[in-house]
Inverse folding.
């Protein structure tokens, strides 16, 4: 069974740093999840074949469902889940559309809960979950 780490928001800032730290661990694959395919491919070129790129928008239920489908198919042993994806916009309440507010809540709150729920069955004693709320 392959040992993996899953890192959301993996292509920039803290997420990219977590990728660099996790690659030093005894991990077979790092599943790097982010929306930007170009940045994901650049990350794979930089880190190597240990990176499995997964271009998904965690605000979309269908994208979360597709991640769950991959987990069901692969049945990996998850050593680390780092929920780093985040979205934040600052301003007055009247500067936000309902859709912008819903997207922020979906990524910053709902996706974290769903990712944990999906991944915990593939974790064991000693596995780690780290939830970041840097944008929130």
């Amino acid at each position: 069974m392959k040992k993996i780490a899953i890192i959301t928001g993996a292509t920039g800032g803290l997420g990219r740093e977590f990728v660099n730290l996790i690659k030093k661990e005894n991990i077979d694959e790092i599943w790097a999840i982010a929306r930007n395919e170009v940045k994901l491919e650049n990350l794979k070129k930089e880190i190597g074949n240990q990176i499995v790129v997964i271009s998904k928008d965690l605000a979309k239920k269908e994208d979360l469902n597709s991640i769950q489908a991959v987990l069901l198919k692969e049945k990996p042993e998850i050593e680390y889940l780092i929920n780093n994806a985040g979205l934040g916009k600052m301003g007055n309440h009247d500067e936000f559309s309902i859709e912008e507010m819903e997207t922020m809540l979906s990524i910053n709150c709902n996706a974290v809960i769903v990712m944990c729920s999906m991944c915990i069955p593939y974790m064991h004693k000693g596995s780690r979950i780290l939830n970041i709320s840097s944008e929130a």
User: Anything to note?
Assistant: The beta strands are 3-8, 29-34, 51-55, 77-83, 128-131.
